[in-house]
Design brief:
heterodimer, A: alpha/beta, Methyltransferase, Methionine Synthase (B12-binding Domains), Chain A, domain 1, Rossmann fold, B: alpha/beta, three-stranded parallel sheet, binds cobalamin
């Protein structure tokens, strides 16, 4: 297969969630010297972006999204160490978790995959994460951005509780706060004092990079 | 005749309560599957109202995040149908165990179709853990704990692979709310 054919295969098979085919495609690509970055940026990520677009349009529902994400995850597992070796610059560290009282995690996991694909070092704290845990983990990992995910109207107020805890710990200025999840809106994000919101994983990556650049312009490293 | 537009997951209960109370009420059901696509609910409700003397919506917010309210009809209080039947129990259960998955009679009886198939688990059973990994129990908020519905609830819990807990909450929560909605109309 030519490089182009492999990239097309990665795109097509990720789109339909054919994990074994994607894995084989990645391995074949590596054997013939195709760069891991190209497989990521010219095959896998565009495909998962298309999955997201189809979900937005209502052509795909959650299961289609999940199988595609699994296929992508399988590819990332192979590529991750190689990408690190080739010295792909890390964009920043992103600490992510679903807030206390909530165990919805599909949207969060999808964001994680896209963030990782875009070069973020992602630390996932899982679900039902209480404010103390976020604080403790921010102290330990010193991330650039912390993301809070919530899917229930009753758990959204935890955004504010988390931000209050950050303030109390004197960390609010240290870290960028992003929020998201099905019930969340830009208005709500503004009201609780988050720095950023986005409605889907692709937009989350864009927003995260944008906020990071802004921060770095303000605070020269 | 006065009419209410009801979520399909509540329509049977609304009809039963109306019959019991002797209310003359037309119940117009909306497909319950829209629960998974809440952004389409307000449009579906609007279309079904046409030609009826609709006085209220037998709906919680159901993930429409205010879009139903903007239609300008009174509706049931609560974020979703679990709230409508048993708000206090739901809150308590989630405090006890955040990984609680709720069933109502309707959801138990239609689980194969409204949950399992809708979530693609008939085609991709391997996704079950992706969905339910963080769940620790299934809590059936029973309206009427008949043997047939109990079997259905047990089967649903088995599908998810979690223990079933039963709380018989009845339908008084819904009845009270319907009564309040109809009272408001005089
Ligand atoms: C799938 C689903 C489930 C799955 C969840 C599996 C899992 N592991 O997450 C299951 C079936 C288990 C489930 C359970 C429940 N659910 Co549910 N669920 C949904 C559903 C259908 C889709 C949500 C989803 O995962 N979408 C897929 C993702 C990929 O799409 P997305 O939301 O657009 O995600 C993007 C953004 O949100 C964003 N994002 C997400 N997180 C973050 C974080 C940051 C920082 C950023 C920047 C962006 C971001 O990026 C994501 C990727 O593009 C919604 C309805 C809907 N259509 O929204 C109801 C819904 C969220 N659930 C609901 C309910 C009520 C429940 C239950 C209570 C039902 C029950 N029978 O018990 C339980 C929850 C119990 C509990 N203990 O918490 C309600 C919530 C209503 C409310 N007002 O609170 C909804 C809205 C359904 C409804 N119409 O009422 N659910």
């Amino acid at each position: 297969m030519t490089d182009e054919e492999i990239l097309q295969l990665l795109y097509d098979e990720t789109l339909v969630g054919n994990a074994p085919a994607v894995r084989d495609g990645v391995n074949e690509g590596l054997e013939q010297g195709l760069a891991p970055e190209r497989m990521l940026y010219d095959g896998l990520i565009p495909s998962l972006e298309e999955v997201g677009a189809r979900f937005e349009r209502g052509d795909f529902f959650v299961p289609e999204m999940l199988i595609a994400a699994r296929a992508m995850q399988g590819a990332l597992d192979i590529l991750r160490p190689l990408l690190a070796e080739t010295g792909m610059a890390e964009v920043g560290t992103f600490l992510m978790g679903t807030v206390k009282g909530d165990v919805h995690d599909i949207g969060k996991n999808l964001c994680n995959i896209m963030l990782e694909g875009a070069g973020f070092h992602v630390i996932d704290l899982g679900v039902n994460v209480p404010p103390e845990k976020f604080i403790e983990q921010i102290e330990e990992h010193n991330p650039d951005i912390v993301g809070f995910s919530a899917f229930l109207t009753t758990t959204m107020p935890m955004f504010k509780a988390n931000i209050n805890a950050l303030e109390k710990a004197g960390m609010r200025e240290k870290v960028i706060v992003m929020v998201g999840g099905a019930p969340v809106t830009q208005e709500y994000a503004d009201a609780v004092g988050a720095d950023g919101y986005s409605a889907d994983a692709s937009a989350a990556v864009k927003k995260a990079k944008e906020l990071l650049e802004l921060r770095r312009e303000k605070v020269p490293a | 005749m006065k009419a209410v537009v009801a979520c399909g997951a509540l329509a049977l209960d609304v009809r039963r309560i109306a019959r019991r109370r002797g209310w003359e009420l037309k119940v117009i059901p909306v497909p319950a599957l829209l629960h998974n696509h809440p952004e389409r609910i307000d449009t579906a409700v609007t279309e079904l109202m046409e030609g009826h003397d609709v006085v209220a919506l037998a709906y919680g917010d159901c993930g429409t995040y205010g879009a139903l309210d903007r239609l300008g009809f009174p509706r049931l209080e609560g974020d979703h149908c679990y709230d409508v039947f048993a708000r206090a129990e739901v809150q308590l259960a989630l405090e006890e165990e955040p990984g609680t998955y709720f069933l109502t009679d309707f959801l138990a009886r239609t689980f194969e179709h409204t949950v399992w198939r809708e979530l693609g688990l008939d085609r991709h059973p391997e996704l079950c853990e992706d969905y339910f990994r963080h769940y620790t129990r299934v809590l059936w908020l029973a309206q009427r704990a008949t043997p047939a519905t109990r079997v259905a609830a047990e089967r649903a819990a088995q599908r998810i692979g979690r223990p079933l807990v039963v709380r018989e909450v009845g339908d008084a929560g819904l009845e009270r709310q319907l009564e309040a909605l109809l009272d408001r109309l005089g």
